[in-house]
Amino acid sequence: MMSSRPLRRAAALLSVLAAAVATAAVAAPAHAAGLDQVCVGTEVTTFDPPLTLTARPTTVTVSGVYTTCTNPGAITATYAETFPLTASCLVLFDSGSALRTFTWGGTEAPSTFQYNVTSSAVAGQVVVTNTGVITAGGFAPAGAEQVITLVTPNVLQCLVGGVASVSGPTTLTVHGA
């Protein structure tokens, strides 16, 4: 005659496993359910005149391409923006607010992104974080965050001729209501 002990252990193990799965599902971040879009790509930032060690007025042009996005209605994206800024190799960006338009590859209408920008130097890189709201077009209204990681300019290049451009990876996350 077979003992019922292994069956009880198996049933107990299944109960514990089911409880763990249910707990994990409940413990997921609240915003995950409202995630509308995640994109990864590259940004190139140019400076005219090039940056030196001395802060001076320059025209900054950013150009970004998201080659991979998760939403089937917006599988890629591009953006471009030009603005004046007083900057140097030591201080690339400042805090402030701005508008940017993401043009989607797909069926979504272009999105207007109104954001606040902060930047910080982290381990030889400048991390720029744009946090705000998609106010019009595709995905509106929705919160969004764009993070751009740029390599800190080479000091020697800053001394000899200046830094005309920097580039690096960028991510965009759009959270629906």
Topology, element by element:
Layout: H1 5-26, E1 35-51, E2 56-69, E3 74-87, E4 96-106, E5 111-122, E6 125-137, E7 142-151, H2 155-159, E8 163-175
Antiparallel strand pairs: 1-2, 1-8, 2-3, 3-4, 4-5, 5-6, 6-7, 7-8
**Beta-strand percent range:** over 45%
Q: What is the count of DSSP helices, taking H or I runs of 4+ residues?
A: 2
Order of helices and strands: HEEEEEEEHE
Portion of residues in helices? 10-25%
- Total DSSP E strands: 8
Strand order of the largest sheet: 1-2-3-4-5-6-7-8
Describe what this molecule looks like in 3D:
Residues 1-32 form the signal peptide. Helix content is 15%, strand content 59%. It contains two helices and eight strands. Strand 2 (56-69) and strand 3 form a beta hairpin. The termini are far apart. Mean pLDDT is 82; it is low at 1-33.
Short description:
The protein contains 2 helices and 8 strands, in the order αβββββββαβ.
Features of the shown structure:
signal, eight-stranded antiparallel β-barrel, Ig-like domain-containing protein, alpha+beta, disordered N terminus, 177 residues
